[in-house]
Amino acid sequence: MDQRYRIATEDWIEFEEEQHQVTGLTGALVRLRSISGHHQTIMLSVLLTDPSFRALAAPPANADNGAAGLDPGGVLASLKNKQARDDALELEAHLHEATTGYRSGDSLDKQPGEPRPQYHPDLLLSDRVKAKADELGLTERRIWQLLEEWKEKGLWALVDRRKARLRNPLRNIDERVITAIREQGAAERLDSSSSVSTRFRRRCQNRLDEDYGPGTVELPKPDTFRRVVKLLLHHSPSDPAYQRISDANQPDRTFGNVIAHRPGQVVMLDTTPLDVLAWDPAMNDTYNVELTVALDVATRSILAWRLTPLGTKAIDIGLLLADVMTPEPMRPKWADALRFQMLRVPYERLLSVDERLAAAAARPVVYPETLLYDHGKPYKSDVVKRACRSWRIDLQDARKLKPTDKPHVERLFLTIREQFSMHVAGYKGFNVAHRGKHVEQQARWTLDEIAEFFAEYVVAVYQNQHHRGLTLQGFPDLNVSPNEAYAMALGSAGYVDCPRDPNLYYELLPIADDGRAINAYGVELNHLVYNADVLYQFRRAKSPYENTRWPIRYDPRNLLHAYFHNPRDGRWYTLRWTKALNDLQPFTDITLREARRLVELRGGDPKDKDFQEQIAKALWDLQNRTDAPEMWTKTDRKRHTRDQHRAEAQAQDEARSTPAVPAAVPVPRLVPEVAEPTIPTLHVVPTVTDEDDDFDPLAVQPAEVWNPRTSQEG
Hints:
Number of domains: 5
Oligomer: single chain
């Protein structure tokens, strides 16, 4: 009768008069490791038919008990059985005494009463071994075996294998099943979460049937299958999808390090949704906010930040670079300890270079050399490229969907969430699974107030908190804060004066594609006509630029105005939308696209002469539904809040530069009304009063264009 054998990983067998341990099974091949440490691979059929093959019921006495291929010292250090380690140390002390006469193994570290007479170093080793065998109740042969194994394998040879056996929880699992689970887990890294016992199990079985034939390899029972999946996969298919997607973004190679030795050498830019809802008191509604930051790698300092409604623009990124090189102003209620002069830098000498530092807060001001950013559309715009070209800043983009290329700023967002966002009313969590039930009702801060809170957090908390990634040179265990790292870096690298351009805001604005021609009625931009008195002297004139057209700049956050640079006096002039002679509020390019869409749905054509009037009417309908604002849709409320905030931000950015020459508001000519035919039978003679004689219709001034700065002052 044929005898049947079951071989699994870590089993011990006898083959060719030597004991082996099974270290792996791959199809029809078996990998063996002999007790002497030699490896070989043999076919399973050859092994089972060999006359010398015999399965062992227990591991050999001198086997490593599962430690094959492992570091014996590491196995010993990882033992949970403290008694087994103590027994091994005690046995080692006995062997030291048997070989040297001292339990420590050193005559300079002897204990009281050592050496004992039966273990005196002058005695023969065989006599000391015999005495130790009598003391421990072992045979002399066993003591000599322990000495030989101890010399070869160290302390691990003295550990009781019965108490230190390493168990492999996958020893009874087919290697083909393990491979299928790993391959299917890799294939579902980007999929939605599912149950391990249903969809994932079915797909693994389908994979096995396709690779080895239907029914050839069967999956273990559901409970065992779930346990194996948990052991093999870092995140099982039932875990949240964002965790598996995040792991999938990690590179499949050794992580690199972005190293910077001086402030500004590498500055990382990134944008993320802030985990706080902002509240609009005018609309009594909440909306999402985006945070854009610039992080200096050398000092881990937050150099600049911008909070905007959802949808960051390229102009926001360009002006963020200007913020990096501009000191952060002190707020009236901030403590004097937050002033720039408290950074422990040569303040008086720096003040002679940049007088703006006198009223600045304790936030570093650097001249960036290299910008590291992702593939976001605002970062790859002409505005950012033009600004970097003007300031001689190198651009380096990270790989797409590889957040590990800029890990410092990604880790910063987690710090901001834990130290700032979680403690602000209206915190909504970083995904739906972490969102509370009444977040909208708890939001109470406007976007401007959140921006002020964040500025205080950066200057007062983050910049002064010790950072684990920053160490003092020569003291690797002493961490420093970003401000302290900046002060030390100035001592070694020096201070670089940042450029100050009074026309910085206008030079960062995007330029209309291919320029514009100045016609008798003005310039046309985005199907809107802009005009100002300064354009009169340039009508139908060719520009000195290569394409003979005039560059017209505009701010997509406020399309009521455009800007024109006069080459004759070098000044910037504001161009006004000709149809903005009513109380239209500033609007963004998104609102303009919505108005154009509404006009085109009604049959409007951009080539029609009255298209601008239709656009103006559509904007009026979108903006001035003041008869019942509580009836506005959620989209209307969010659009109103977005346009209002972006107009205020645009006004603040414009105020930092030399003010452009404003465009005079033209007085419209009133077309006289056609007199109605008089009825002869009435002969009504109107009564003329003094007030009618004094009334002049031409003196009526049109409504002023809304100015956010004026409205705030009022």
